[in-house]
Amino acid sequence: MSRSVIAHARRLVVKVGSSLVTDEGRGLDHARLALWSEQIAKLMGMGKEVVLVSSGAIAEGIKRLGWAKRPQAVNELQAAAAVGQMGLIEAYERSFRAHGLQTAQILLTHADLADRERYLNARSTLRTLLELRVTPIINENDTVTTEEIKVGDNDTLGALVANLIEADALIILTDQPGLYSADPRKHPAAEFVHEAVAGDPRLEEMAGGAGSNVGTGGMITKILAAKRAARSGAHTIIVSGREPDVLARLAQGEALGTRLMAREEPLAARRQWLADHLQVGGRLVLDAGAVKALAEQGKSLLPIGVVEVRGEFPRGAVVACQDADGRDIAHGLVNYSADEARRIARRPSGEIEGILGYVDELELIHRDNLVLL
Q1: What does the alpha-carbon distance between residue 173 and residue 290 come to, in Å, rounded to a whole number?
Q2: Would you say 51 and 126 are in contact if contact means Cβ atoms under 8 Å apart?
Q3: Which segments of 184-263 does DSSP mark as H helices, in order?
């Protein structure tokens, strides 16, 4: 079954890295874009729904602006993204139109996925486009993103989109054959990993360091993306985009690349959204009893179990729950602001009204609004 995971998949997210859509960072490689469009058209001809996450906007913008090298200043990178995104979408639109297919441009930021209403709006839009047999082409909105709101890399973005649309699989196309037990450039005896379980801690030990100097990611970002995609039940394939007709061959059941299999059952949409927050509003440090109540007994978080409140956040924010060693064990929607949480921390729920002058909920985080990580 694992060999034919793409063959059995109905909804796919395909992520194409910078090295596979640009001419060594010197603008777009239009011939390669045409190949990706052709292959995705084949997948759609097999009855599959496909969302494409593509890099390349900044590289194209640098070329169009006539710059000799990639700038360091954020405002210049944002300007390059704005210019280059025009060329990227124009090229894809032309390539897909040759196969009688329409495309749609979707630019996302972390804020779009962090806000519950915007999250649901994005999911609804993407699902409607897929029903209309339109191929959404997604990129991070580099024109407006800053460190505080950015997703970070398109491997992570691909995983978040897989969660968003409840995809069956995420295909990460890269310039490497897949994952090795160690860096094969430094360790000739490194073994190729054909299949593993997404989220296995050993995978993160195997991966590390950036690969190509064109993109922002490396193998580690792909391993972490697979771990994130698995939260919604999506399997991940990390495979070389230089393999001829790679997408169609995967869809026909050929065993290519590294298959990272999801073992978790898909989370409910609300809990999935909570788990996928890359940035949280603050942190609650819990005592051992509260950690056990959450992790082992599936209970709500009560104020008495909180020993420290870190950060500033409003009521309804997503916060991380940590143990005494600083490990995040859960994310949840908090019922009280940071200031209120500090005032009621270490106190029984029956004292909340006397301390705050009102009581909204007896729990700091209700178990229905909490997901273990």
Answers
A1: 42
A2: yes
A3: 201-206, 219-230, 246-251
CA distance 330 to 371: 5
φ and ψ at residue 219, rounded to 5 degrees: -65, -30
Please name every residue paired with 134 in a beta bridge, in sequence order, or none if there are none. 102
Please tell me which residue, 104 or 333, carries the higher pLDDT value: 104
pLDDT at position 312 over 80 = yes
The residue ranges of every structural domain in the chain are: 2-272, 280-372
Q: What pLDDT does 19 receive?
A: 87
**What's the pLDDT score for residue 148?**
43
- Judge whether 334 and 313 are in contact, CB under 8 Å: yes
What is the C-alpha separation between 258 and 225, in angstroms, rounded? Answer: 13
Please tell me what DSSP assigns to residue 349.
G
The continuous run of DSSP H or E covering 49 comes out as strand 49-54
β-partners of residue 330 are 321, 372
| Cβ within 8 Å of residue 313, ≥6 positions away | 281, 282, 319, 334, 337, 338
Overall CATH class of domain 280-372: mainly beta
Specify the pTM.
0.79
Q: Is 71 helix (H, G, I), strand (E, B) or coil?
A: coil
Topology, domain 2-272: Carbamate kinase (3.40.1160)
pLDDT for 227-257, tens place per residue?
999 988 899 999 999 999 999 999 999 999 9
Mean pLDDT of 85-92: 95
| Cβ pair 38, 75 in contact under 8 A | no
